[in-house]
Design goal:
The protein has about 350 residues and is of the alpha/beta class. The chain contains 15 helices and 12 strands. An 8-stranded parallel β-sheet has the order 8-7-6-5-4-3-2-9, covered by helices on one side. A two-stranded antiparallel sheet has the order 1-12. α7 links the parallel β5 and β6. The longest helix has 18 residues.
Length: about 350
């Protein structure tokens, strides 16, 4: 995969100071964990949508999550599993062997019983599947999934837990649950590629749904939950990126919705999130565009890393309007350099809007 692969060479050179680099499921985890970007969810029973999304990677690279959970009705599991088997079989015969840039493909599994039902599918397609997504994850479920995959001899599959259940919301129990999750992730962090949060489920517990007029950070329930996730799980010793929550509002032709979505992504980044789950292709280009690194941030990150062990501790930034403090800004700088490898660095004076314009 390579982000912004739809751009012609001339546009790439005009937009990027450093161009995005290729990656795949075999890329070193320290880089790959930052590469999930706009993570598109597709119901497992949508054969054509899955097939086209894989084939169209040459036009627009994006990781795919094939969903066997919320996107499938209570009575549609058998059909969805059969369709998953069929589409992966067809892709392996017709596409996987020919496509130069395979997408990162994840399977979102409803529960451990369902994981066992798709054992043969996973084993057969282990070379094409990057990992498993665990909805409503807690420490016990995470341990169970890892044990099952180990028994299947599928140690090469990454795991992405989604934090979205009441255990991590209700005040009287959440501290214990977060502590347990912290230690489970710490013990298995080599297998865990990322952490996701389920804001739709969290709001649903309180009969709340997003509104067009508000950013998710305007909601007290959501911000309290986000604060806890960051506080407990965005730790240096875990070193696992956390992805921002999804929005069901996808009409990016509506300027108000689009601008609010952009504001939310900028706040996601400011709070330390990396990437964002998306449910519609119209959201993809915006999330990917805002994942690119500005020239100013890259130059600052480069300066901080270069001078970290120098005799000085602070220096004026490349823009000349702020200070680079080498010790407190060092972790930020390292993350910026990893993101720059995946999403590229914009030329001086260029912003993310150029990437969105170039798509049209």
């Amino acid at each position: 995969m390579k982000y912004f692969n739809y751009l012609e060479k001339e546009r790439l050179e005009r937009i990027f100071y450093k161009q995005p680099q290729e990656f795949d499921k075999k890329t070193d985890k320290d880089i790959l964990k930052y590469a999930l970007g706009a993570f598109l969810y597709i119901p497992a029973n949508k054969y054509e949508q899955i097939y086209k999304s894989v084939v169209n990677q040459e036009k627009e690279a994006k990781p795919l999550a094939i969903c066997l959970e919320d996107a499938i009705s209570e009575f549609g599991e058998r059909e969805a599993i059969e369709n998953l088997k069929l589409v992966l079989d067809d892709l392996s015969k017709q596409v996987f062997c020919k496509l130069e840039k395979l997408p990162l493909i994840f399977i979102r599994v409803k529960n451990k019983e369902q994981l066992k039902k798709i054992k043969d599918i996973l084993i057969k397609n282990k070379d094409f599947i990057t990992g498993i997504i665990i909805p409503k994850a807690d420490s016990e479920l995470l341990e169970d999934f890892i044990s099952i995959l180990d028994n299947f001899n599928l140690n090469n599959l990454y795991i992405i837990p989604i934090i979205e259940s009441s255990k991590f919301i209700y005040k009287e129990i959440k501290e214990t649950q977060f502590q347990k999750m912290y230690y489970s992730i710490l013990n298995h962090k080599d297998k865990i590629l990322g952490i996701r949060i389920g804001l739709t489920d969290v709001l649903g517990m309180y009969s709340i749904r997003r509104k067009r007029e508000f950013c998710i950070y305007d909601n007290l329930i959501a911000t309290s939950f986000i604060q806890d996730v960051i506080n407990y799980l965005n730790r240096e010793e875990l070193d696992v990126p956390i992805s921002a929550g999804v929005s069901e509002l996808f009409n990016m032709d509506d300027e108000k919705i689009k601008n609010l979505y952009i504001k939310e992504i900028e706040l996601d980044k400011f709070h330390g999130f990396v990437g964002k789950t998306v449910i519609h292709p119209k959201q993809v280009e915006i999330v990917q565009a805002l994942s690119s690194i500005t020239y100013e941030d890259y130059m600052d990150a480069q300066d901080i890393i270069k001078n970290y062990n120098s005799q000085i501790g602070v220096k004026k930034s490349s823009s000349g309007d702020k200070m680079n403090e080498y010790k407190p800004h060092y972790k930020w700088a390292k993350k910026i350099m990893s993101l720059a490898y995946i999403y590229g660095v914009l030329n001086k004076g260029v912003d993310y809007n150029e990437l969105i314009k170039s798509k049209k």
